[in-house]
Write a structure and sequence with these properties.
Number of domains: 3
CATH architecture of the largest domain: 2-Layer Sandwich
Number of strands: 11
Structural class: alpha+beta
Strand content: 15-25%
Strand order of the largest sheet: 6-8-9-11-10
Length: about 475
Protein backbone atom coordinates (compact mmCIF):
# COMPACT_ATOMS: atom_id res chain seq x y z
CA UNK A 1 0.00 0.00 0.00
CA UNK A 2 1.46 3.33 -1.08
CA UNK A 3 1.46 6.05 1.55
CA UNK A 4 1.51 9.64 0.36
CA UNK A 5 2.89 12.25 2.72
CA UNK A 6 2.07 15.89 2.21
CA UNK A 7 4.97 18.26 2.59
CA UNK A 8 4.31 20.99 5.14
CA UNK A 9 5.65 24.44 4.32
CA UNK A 10 5.58 27.08 7.02
CA UNK A 11 3.61 30.23 6.35
CA UNK A 12 6.66 32.44 6.87
CA UNK A 13 8.48 30.65 4.04
CA UNK A 14 5.45 30.91 1.79
CA UNK A 15 5.28 34.66 2.40
CA UNK A 16 9.02 35.08 1.92
CA UNK A 17 9.15 33.06 -1.28
CA UNK A 18 6.14 34.84 -2.74
CA UNK A 19 7.70 38.27 -2.09
CA UNK A 20 11.08 37.31 -3.51
CA UNK A 21 9.54 35.53 -6.52
CA UNK A 22 7.46 38.56 -7.43
CA UNK A 23 10.50 40.81 -7.21
CA UNK A 24 12.70 38.50 -9.32
CA UNK A 25 10.04 38.09 -12.00
CA UNK A 26 9.47 41.85 -12.06
CA UNK A 27 13.19 42.54 -12.54
CA UNK A 28 13.53 39.91 -15.28
CA UNK A 29 10.58 41.35 -17.18
CA UNK A 30 11.89 44.90 -16.68
CA UNK A 31 15.37 43.88 -17.87
CA UNK A 32 14.02 42.20 -21.02
CA UNK A 33 11.76 45.12 -21.86
CA UNK A 34 14.50 47.69 -21.22
CA UNK A 35 17.05 45.71 -23.26
CA UNK A 36 14.64 45.39 -26.16
CA UNK A 37 13.83 49.09 -25.98
CA UNK A 38 17.52 50.14 -25.96
CA UNK A 39 18.43 47.82 -28.84
CA UNK A 40 15.49 49.06 -30.90
CA UNK A 41 16.41 52.67 -30.18
CA UNK A 42 20.08 52.14 -31.12
CA UNK A 43 19.16 50.29 -34.32
CA UNK A 44 16.68 52.99 -35.23
CA UNK A 45 19.22 55.80 -34.72
CA UNK A 46 21.89 53.90 -36.64
CA UNK A 47 19.47 53.25 -39.51
CA UNK A 48 18.44 56.90 -39.66
CA UNK A 49 22.12 57.91 -39.67
CA UNK A 50 22.96 55.55 -42.56
CA UNK A 51 19.92 56.66 -44.58
CA UNK A 52 20.92 60.30 -44.05
CA UNK A 53 24.49 59.65 -45.32
CA UNK A 54 23.19 57.59 -48.20
CA UNK A 55 20.78 60.30 -49.35
CA UNK A 56 23.60 62.86 -49.21
CA UNK A 57 25.89 60.63 -51.28
CA UNK A 58 23.09 59.94 -53.75
CA UNK A 59 22.34 63.67 -54.12
CA UNK A 60 26.03 64.56 -54.64
CA UNK A 61 26.46 61.79 -57.22
CA UNK A 62 23.48 63.06 -59.22
CA UNK A 63 24.96 66.57 -59.33
CA UNK A 64 28.51 65.42 -60.14
CA UNK A 65 28.14 62.37 -62.35
CA UNK A 66 31.25 63.34 -64.34
CA UNK A 67 33.48 62.80 -61.25
CA UNK A 68 31.89 59.91 -59.24
CA UNK A 69 35.19 58.50 -58.02
CA UNK A 70 36.22 61.81 -56.43
CA UNK A 71 32.89 62.09 -54.58
CA UNK A 72 33.12 58.48 -53.43
CA UNK A 73 36.67 58.95 -52.15
CA UNK A 74 35.73 62.09 -50.21
CA UNK A 75 32.86 60.33 -48.47
CA UNK A 76 35.00 57.25 -47.89
CA UNK A 77 37.56 59.22 -45.87
CA UNK A 78 34.78 60.66 -43.68
CA UNK A 79 32.64 57.52 -43.23
CA UNK A 80 35.42 54.98 -42.79
CA UNK A 81 36.59 57.08 -39.83
CA UNK A 82 33.14 56.67 -38.30
CA UNK A 83 33.30 52.90 -38.86
CA UNK A 84 30.70 53.20 -41.61
CA UNK A 85 31.50 51.35 -44.82
CA UNK A 86 29.80 52.08 -48.09
CA UNK A 87 30.00 51.26 -51.75
CA UNK A 88 28.35 52.42 -54.93
CA UNK A 89 27.24 49.86 -57.50
CA UNK A 90 25.63 49.95 -60.93
CA UNK A 91 22.43 48.25 -62.11
CA UNK A 92 24.35 45.02 -62.68
CA UNK A 93 25.72 45.02 -59.12
CA UNK A 94 29.29 45.90 -60.11
CA UNK A 95 31.14 48.04 -57.52
CA UNK A 96 32.24 51.48 -58.65
CA UNK A 97 34.75 51.83 -55.79
CA UNK A 98 36.32 48.36 -55.50
CA UNK A 99 39.71 49.59 -54.38
CA UNK A 100 38.58 51.51 -51.32
CA UNK A 101 35.75 49.16 -50.38
CA UNK A 102 36.66 47.16 -47.29
CA UNK A 103 33.26 45.67 -46.60
CA UNK A 104 31.63 42.46 -47.77
CA UNK A 105 30.55 41.81 -51.32
CA UNK A 106 27.06 42.67 -52.40
CA UNK A 107 24.87 39.61 -51.97
CA UNK A 108 21.20 40.56 -52.30
CA UNK A 109 18.49 38.06 -52.95
CA UNK A 110 16.44 38.22 -56.13
CA UNK A 111 13.54 39.66 -54.21
CA UNK A 112 15.77 42.36 -52.69
CA UNK A 113 17.20 43.26 -56.15
CA UNK A 114 13.66 43.57 -57.50
CA UNK A 115 12.67 45.79 -54.60
CA UNK A 116 15.73 47.99 -55.11
CA UNK A 117 15.16 48.25 -58.88
CA UNK A 118 11.61 49.43 -58.24
CA UNK A 119 13.01 52.40 -56.33
CA UNK A 120 12.42 51.13 -52.78
CA UNK A 121 15.23 51.22 -50.19
CA UNK A 122 16.39 48.12 -48.32
CA UNK A 123 16.82 48.41 -44.56
CA UNK A 124 18.00 45.54 -42.33
CA UNK A 125 18.67 45.74 -38.65
CA UNK A 126 21.26 43.02 -38.83
CA UNK A 127 22.23 40.07 -40.97
CA UNK A 128 24.45 37.86 -38.86
CA UNK A 129 24.35 34.82 -41.12
CA UNK A 130 25.30 36.70 -44.25
CA UNK A 131 28.26 38.65 -42.81
CA UNK A 132 30.97 37.91 -40.27
CA UNK A 133 29.50 40.30 -37.75
CA UNK A 134 26.14 41.82 -36.86
CA UNK A 135 25.59 44.98 -38.87
CA UNK A 136 22.99 47.54 -39.75
CA UNK A 137 22.59 47.60 -43.52
CA UNK A 138 20.94 50.22 -45.74
CA UNK A 139 20.75 50.12 -49.53
CA UNK A 140 19.38 53.12 -51.43
CA UNK A 141 18.55 52.99 -55.17
CA UNK A 142 19.89 55.64 -57.63
CA UNK A 143 17.21 56.65 -60.13
CA UNK A 144 18.20 58.78 -63.13
CA UNK A 145 15.37 60.18 -65.26
CA UNK A 146 13.01 57.49 -63.96
CA UNK A 147 15.47 54.70 -64.74
CA UNK A 148 17.29 52.53 -62.18
CA UNK A 149 21.05 52.96 -62.74
CA UNK A 150 22.56 51.64 -59.49
CA UNK A 151 22.59 52.05 -55.77
CA UNK A 152 24.45 52.89 -52.58
CA UNK A 153 25.16 50.30 -49.87
CA UNK A 154 26.03 51.43 -46.33
CA UNK A 155 26.82 49.17 -43.38
CA UNK A 156 27.84 49.77 -39.79
CA UNK A 157 28.63 47.20 -37.10
CA UNK A 158 26.30 47.13 -34.09
CA UNK A 159 28.75 45.60 -31.69
CA UNK A 160 28.94 48.85 -29.75
CA UNK A 161 25.19 48.82 -29.23
CA UNK A 162 25.31 45.28 -27.91
CA UNK A 163 28.12 46.21 -25.54
CA UNK A 164 26.06 49.13 -24.25
CA UNK A 165 23.06 46.85 -23.72
CA UNK A 166 25.28 44.34 -21.93
CA UNK A 167 26.57 47.12 -19.69
CA UNK A 168 23.02 48.22 -18.90
CA UNK A 169 22.05 44.65 -18.09
CA UNK A 170 25.02 44.41 -15.77
CA UNK A 171 23.89 47.51 -13.87
CA UNK A 172 20.36 46.12 -13.76
CA UNK A 173 21.73 42.90 -12.30
CA UNK A 174 23.60 44.78 -9.57
CA UNK A 175 20.45 46.79 -8.85
CA UNK A 176 18.42 43.60 -8.61
CA UNK A 177 20.93 42.04 -6.19
CA UNK A 178 20.75 45.10 -3.90
CA UNK A 179 16.95 45.22 -4.15
CA UNK A 180 16.77 41.50 -3.37
CA UNK A 181 18.90 42.01 -0.28
CA UNK A 182 16.69 44.84 0.97
CA UNK A 183 13.48 42.99 0.09
CA UNK A 184 14.87 39.87 1.78
CA UNK A 185 15.20 41.74 5.07
CA UNK A 186 11.83 43.50 4.73
CA UNK A 187 10.03 40.32 3.67
CA UNK A 188 11.56 38.36 6.51
CA UNK A 189 10.64 41.06 9.01
CA UNK A 190 7.04 41.46 7.76
CA UNK A 191 6.58 37.70 7.50
CA UNK A 192 7.79 37.24 11.08
CA UNK A 193 5.40 39.94 12.30
CA UNK A 194 2.41 38.38 10.50
CA UNK A 195 3.35 34.85 11.57
CA UNK A 196 3.66 35.94 15.21
CA UNK A 197 0.21 37.55 15.05
CA UNK A 198 -1.26 34.40 13.54
CA UNK A 199 0.50 32.26 16.16
CA UNK A 200 -1.08 34.33 18.94
CA UNK A 201 -4.52 33.66 17.43
CA UNK A 202 -3.62 29.97 17.07
CA UNK A 203 -2.53 29.72 20.70
CA UNK A 204 -5.66 31.53 21.85
CA UNK A 205 -7.78 29.15 19.73
CA UNK A 206 -6.10 26.18 21.41
CA UNK A 207 -6.93 27.66 24.81
CA UNK A 208 -10.56 28.17 23.79
CA UNK A 209 -10.80 24.60 22.46
CA UNK A 210 -9.53 23.47 25.89
CA UNK A 211 -12.37 25.37 27.57
CA UNK A 212 -10.57 28.60 28.52
CA UNK A 213 -12.91 31.40 27.38
CA UNK A 214 -10.77 34.18 28.86
CA UNK A 215 -8.26 34.04 25.98
CA UNK A 216 -7.74 37.38 24.24
CA UNK A 217 -5.52 38.53 21.37
CA UNK A 218 -4.43 42.08 20.41
CA UNK A 219 -6.78 43.47 17.76
CA UNK A 220 -6.74 46.44 15.39
CA UNK A 221 -8.39 47.85 12.27
CA UNK A 222 -5.06 48.01 10.41
CA UNK A 223 -5.52 44.88 8.28
CA UNK A 224 -7.51 41.65 7.92
CA UNK A 225 -5.49 39.88 10.63
CA UNK A 226 -6.38 42.66 13.09
CA UNK A 227 -10.05 42.39 12.11
CA UNK A 228 -9.84 38.61 12.50
CA UNK A 229 -8.42 39.10 16.00
CA UNK A 230 -11.29 41.48 16.83
CA UNK A 231 -13.86 38.96 15.58
CA UNK A 232 -12.08 36.24 17.55
CA UNK A 233 -12.31 38.29 20.75
CA UNK A 234 -16.02 38.94 20.11
CA UNK A 235 -16.58 35.24 19.52
CA UNK A 236 -14.79 34.29 22.74
CA UNK A 237 -16.76 36.90 24.68
CA UNK A 238 -20.03 35.48 23.36
CA UNK A 239 -18.87 31.95 24.15
CA UNK A 240 -18.02 33.05 27.68
CA UNK A 241 -21.46 34.62 28.04
CA UNK A 242 -23.06 31.48 26.64
CA UNK A 243 -21.06 29.35 29.05
CA UNK A 244 -22.19 31.49 31.99
CA UNK A 245 -25.78 31.36 30.75
CA UNK A 246 -25.58 27.59 30.34
CA UNK A 247 -24.16 27.23 33.84
CA UNK A 248 -26.91 29.46 35.23
CA UNK A 249 -29.54 27.53 33.29
CA UNK A 250 -28.13 24.25 34.52
CA UNK A 251 -28.19 25.51 38.10
CA UNK A 252 -31.78 26.67 37.67
CA UNK A 253 -32.68 23.35 36.07
CA UNK A 254 -31.24 21.47 39.03
CA UNK A 255 -33.10 23.74 41.41
CA UNK A 256 -36.22 23.29 39.35
CA UNK A 257 -35.91 19.50 39.49
CA UNK A 258 -35.37 19.71 43.24
CA UNK A 259 -38.45 21.96 43.59
CA UNK A 260 -40.50 19.69 41.35
CA UNK A 261 -39.46 16.65 43.33
CA UNK A 262 -40.30 18.39 46.59
CA UNK A 263 -43.57 19.98 45.45
CA UNK A 264 -44.84 16.90 43.66
CA UNK A 265 -43.85 14.63 46.53
CA UNK A 266 -46.09 16.60 48.91
CA UNK A 267 -49.38 16.27 46.96
CA UNK A 268 -48.55 12.70 45.94
CA UNK A 269 -47.90 11.81 49.59
CA UNK A 270 -51.18 13.50 50.57
CA UNK A 271 -53.13 11.69 47.84
CA UNK A 272 -51.52 8.36 48.69
CA UNK A 273 -52.22 8.79 52.39
CA UNK A 274 -55.87 9.71 51.89
CA UNK A 275 -56.43 6.84 49.45
CA UNK A 276 -54.84 4.39 51.89
CA UNK A 277 -57.03 5.83 54.66
CA UNK A 278 -60.19 5.46 52.60
CA UNK A 279 -59.19 2.00 51.49
CA UNK A 280 -58.58 0.77 55.03
CA UNK A 281 -61.50 2.72 56.61
CA UNK A 282 -59.04 4.70 58.70
CA UNK A 283 -60.78 8.04 57.96
CA UNK A 284 -63.97 8.83 59.85
CA UNK A 285 -67.13 9.17 57.79
CA UNK A 286 -67.37 12.85 58.65
CA UNK A 287 -63.87 13.48 57.24
CA UNK A 288 -64.20 11.47 54.03
CA UNK A 289 -65.78 14.31 52.03
CA UNK A 290 -63.02 16.63 53.12
CA UNK A 291 -60.37 14.04 52.20
CA UNK A 292 -61.88 13.49 48.76
CA UNK A 293 -61.94 17.24 48.16
CA UNK A 294 -58.29 17.46 49.20
CA UNK A 295 -57.37 14.65 46.79
CA UNK A 296 -59.22 16.51 44.01
CA UNK A 297 -57.36 19.76 44.72
CA UNK A 298 -53.97 18.09 44.87
CA UNK A 299 -54.68 16.16 41.67
CA UNK A 300 -55.63 19.36 39.85
CA UNK A 301 -52.46 20.93 41.17
CA UNK A 302 -50.34 18.13 39.73
CA UNK A 303 -52.15 18.32 36.40
CA UNK A 304 -51.56 22.06 36.33
CA UNK A 305 -47.82 21.63 36.90
CA UNK A 306 -47.52 19.01 34.16
CA UNK A 307 -49.57 21.08 31.71
CA UNK A 308 -47.46 24.12 32.39
CA UNK A 309 -44.27 22.32 31.37
CA UNK A 310 -45.92 20.77 28.32
CA UNK A 311 -47.31 24.16 27.35
CA UNK A 312 -43.90 25.80 27.52
CA UNK A 313 -42.27 23.12 25.36
CA UNK A 314 -45.03 23.41 22.76
CA UNK A 315 -44.62 27.16 22.58
CA UNK A 316 -40.83 26.92 22.38
CA UNK A 317 -41.05 24.41 19.47
CA UNK A 318 -43.68 26.48 17.58
CA UNK A 319 -46.30 23.75 17.91
CA UNK A 320 -48.96 26.20 19.06
CA UNK A 321 -51.41 27.28 16.36
CA UNK A 322 -53.08 30.62 17.11
CA UNK A 323 -56.70 31.19 16.08
CA UNK A 324 -56.80 34.98 16.10
CA UNK A 325 -60.03 36.94 16.25
CA UNK A 326 -61.21 40.39 17.28
CA UNK A 327 -62.22 40.40 20.95
CA UNK A 328 -63.58 43.21 23.11
CA UNK A 329 -61.14 44.12 25.86
CA UNK A 330 -63.85 44.75 28.41
CA UNK A 331 -65.11 41.19 27.91
CA UNK A 332 -61.63 39.74 28.55
CA UNK A 333 -61.13 41.91 31.64
CA UNK A 334 -64.48 40.91 33.12
CA UNK A 335 -63.70 37.22 32.69
CA UNK A 336 -60.35 37.66 34.46
CA UNK A 337 -62.00 39.63 37.27
CA UNK A 338 -64.68 36.97 37.75
CA UNK A 339 -62.10 34.18 37.89
CA UNK A 340 -59.61 35.88 40.20
CA UNK A 341 -61.76 38.03 42.47
CA UNK A 342 -61.86 35.33 45.13
CA UNK A 343 -58.09 34.86 45.15
CA UNK A 344 -57.61 38.62 45.31
CA UNK A 345 -60.01 38.98 48.24
CA UNK A 346 -58.15 36.25 50.15
CA UNK A 347 -55.11 38.58 50.18
CA UNK A 348 -57.17 41.71 50.77
CA UNK A 349 -56.79 42.96 47.20
CA UNK A 350 -59.25 44.57 44.82
CA UNK A 351 -59.26 44.22 41.02
CA UNK A 352 -60.33 47.31 39.05
CA UNK A 353 -60.91 47.19 35.28
CA UNK A 354 -60.81 50.19 32.94
CA UNK A 355 -61.08 49.73 29.16
CA UNK A 356 -61.75 52.34 26.49
CA UNK A 357 -65.15 52.18 24.89
CA UNK A 358 -65.04 49.85 21.87
CA UNK A 359 -61.39 48.84 22.45
CA UNK A 360 -60.56 45.54 20.73
CA UNK A 361 -57.70 43.08 20.72
CA UNK A 362 -56.76 40.81 17.80
CA UNK A 363 -55.57 37.62 19.46
CA UNK A 364 -56.21 33.96 20.19
CA UNK A 365 -58.99 33.91 22.79
CA UNK A 366 -57.59 31.16 25.02
CA UNK A 367 -54.02 32.43 24.83
CA UNK A 368 -54.81 36.08 25.60
CA UNK A 369 -56.71 34.88 28.66
CA UNK A 370 -53.72 32.73 29.63
CA UNK A 371 -51.39 35.72 29.29
CA UNK A 372 -53.51 38.11 31.33
CA UNK A 373 -54.52 35.58 33.99
CA UNK A 374 -50.90 34.61 34.52
CA UNK A 375 -49.77 38.23 34.98
CA UNK A 376 -52.76 39.09 37.17
CA UNK A 377 -52.09 36.08 39.39
CA UNK A 378 -48.50 37.19 39.67
CA UNK A 379 -49.70 40.66 40.78
CA UNK A 380 -52.09 39.11 43.34
CA UNK A 381 -49.29 36.95 44.71
CA UNK A 382 -47.00 39.93 45.37
CA UNK A 383 -49.67 42.36 46.54
CA UNK A 384 -51.38 42.40 49.92
CA UNK A 385 -54.24 44.74 50.90
CA UNK A 386 -53.72 46.62 47.65
CA UNK A 387 -55.16 47.20 44.19
CA UNK A 388 -54.64 45.57 40.78
CA UNK A 389 -55.67 47.61 37.74
CA UNK A 390 -56.51 46.12 34.34
CA UNK A 391 -56.40 48.90 31.71
CA UNK A 392 -56.64 48.78 27.94
CA UNK A 393 -57.10 50.88 24.84
CA UNK A 394 -56.18 51.44 21.19
CA UNK A 395 -53.18 53.50 20.08
CA UNK A 396 -51.92 53.95 16.50
CA UNK A 397 -53.05 50.57 15.18
CA UNK A 398 -52.05 48.72 18.34
CA UNK A 399 -53.85 47.39 21.39
CA UNK A 400 -52.15 48.47 24.61
CA UNK A 401 -52.89 46.52 27.80
CA UNK A 402 -51.56 47.48 31.24
CA UNK A 403 -51.68 45.41 34.43
CA UNK A 404 -50.50 47.40 37.43
CA UNK A 405 -50.39 46.58 41.12
CA UNK A 406 -49.44 48.27 44.38
CA UNK A 407 -47.40 45.32 45.57
CA UNK A 408 -43.87 44.94 46.86
CA UNK A 409 -42.28 45.47 43.42
CA UNK A 410 -39.13 43.92 41.99
CA UNK A 411 -35.51 44.88 42.53
CA UNK A 412 -33.89 46.55 39.50
CA UNK A 413 -31.37 43.73 38.98
CA UNK A 414 -34.17 41.15 39.09
CA UNK A 415 -36.44 42.75 36.46
CA UNK A 416 -34.87 41.20 33.34
CA UNK A 417 -34.44 37.83 35.02
CA UNK A 418 -38.17 37.22 35.52
CA UNK A 419 -38.54 36.11 31.88
CA UNK A 420 -36.06 33.27 32.26
CA UNK A 421 -37.22 29.70 32.40
CA UNK A 422 -37.06 28.12 35.88
CA UNK A 423 -36.33 31.55 37.40
CA UNK A 424 -37.96 32.32 40.75
CA UNK A 425 -37.22 35.30 42.92
CA UNK A 426 -36.89 34.43 46.59
CA UNK A 427 -40.14 36.25 47.30
CA UNK A 428 -42.08 34.01 44.93
CA UNK A 429 -41.48 30.80 46.81
CA UNK A 430 -44.92 31.05 48.36
CA UNK A 431 -47.63 28.87 46.91
CA UNK A 432 -48.74 29.98 43.44
CA UNK A 433 -51.37 27.94 41.59
CA UNK A 434 -49.96 28.89 38.16
CA UNK A 435 -46.32 29.40 37.31
CA UNK A 436 -45.08 28.25 40.71
CA UNK A 437 -41.91 26.79 39.19
CA UNK A 438 -40.81 29.95 37.37
CA UNK A 439 -42.36 29.03 34.01
CA UNK A 440 -45.39 31.35 34.03
CA UNK A 441 -43.81 34.63 32.90
CA UNK A 442 -41.53 32.81 30.48
CA UNK A 443 -44.66 31.34 28.83
CA UNK A 444 -46.25 34.80 28.83
CA UNK A 445 -43.34 36.32 26.90
CA UNK A 446 -43.32 33.49 24.37
CA UNK A 447 -47.06 33.84 23.75
CA UNK A 448 -46.81 37.63 23.32
CA UNK A 449 -44.04 37.14 20.76
CA UNK A 450 -46.17 34.56 18.95
CA UNK A 451 -48.79 37.32 18.64
CA UNK A 452 -46.04 39.52 17.09
CA UNK A 453 -46.29 41.84 20.07
CA UNK A 454 -44.00 42.98 22.84
CA UNK A 455 -44.16 43.10 26.62
CA UNK A 456 -42.35 45.36 29.08
CA UNK A 457 -42.23 45.51 32.84
CA UNK A 458 -41.68 48.61 34.96
CA UNK A 459 -41.13 48.07 38.63
CA UNK A 460 -39.60 49.64 41.70
CA UNK A 461 -39.10 47.88 44.97
CA UNK A 462 -41.83 48.89 47.39
CA UNK A 463 -43.74 50.87 44.74
CA UNK A 464 -45.53 48.17 42.74
CA UNK A 465 -45.16 46.70 39.27
CA UNK A 466 -46.67 47.57 35.88
CA UNK A 467 -46.75 45.21 32.87
CA UNK A 468 -47.34 46.80 29.44
CA UNK A 469 -48.37 44.62 26.48
CA UNK A 470 -48.59 45.92 22.89
CA UNK A 471 -50.30 43.76 20.26
CA UNK A 472 -50.81 44.76 16.61
CA UNK A 473 -54.46 45.14 15.59
CA UNK A 474 -55.36 44.00 12.09
Amino acid sequence: MKVLTQMRVKYIYQQFLSHISILVVAFIILSLLFTHYVETLVYKNKTEELISYGENIRADLKHGMEQPEQIINEYARVLFGRDIQFSVFDQAGQLLNPIRWKGPAIEFTEKEWTKLASGEPIVMKYDLERYDQAVTLVALPIIDRGRYVGGILLTSPIGGAREMVGEINQYLFYTMVVALGVSFLLSWLLSRIHVNRIKRIQEATSRVSAGDYTAKVPSSDFDEIGELAKDFNNMVARLDESKSEIENLENRRRKFMADVSHEMRTPLTTISGIIEGLKNDMIPESEKEKGIQLVSQETKRLIRLVNENLDYDKIRSNQVQLQKENIELIEVFEIIKDQLDMQAEERGNKIIIAAEQGAMVHADYDRILQILINITKNSIQFTENGTIWLRGGMDDGKTVIEIEDTGIGIEAEEVEKIWRRFYKADLSRTSNPFGEFGLGLSIVKQLVQLHEGKIEVHSEQGAGTRFVIELPFR
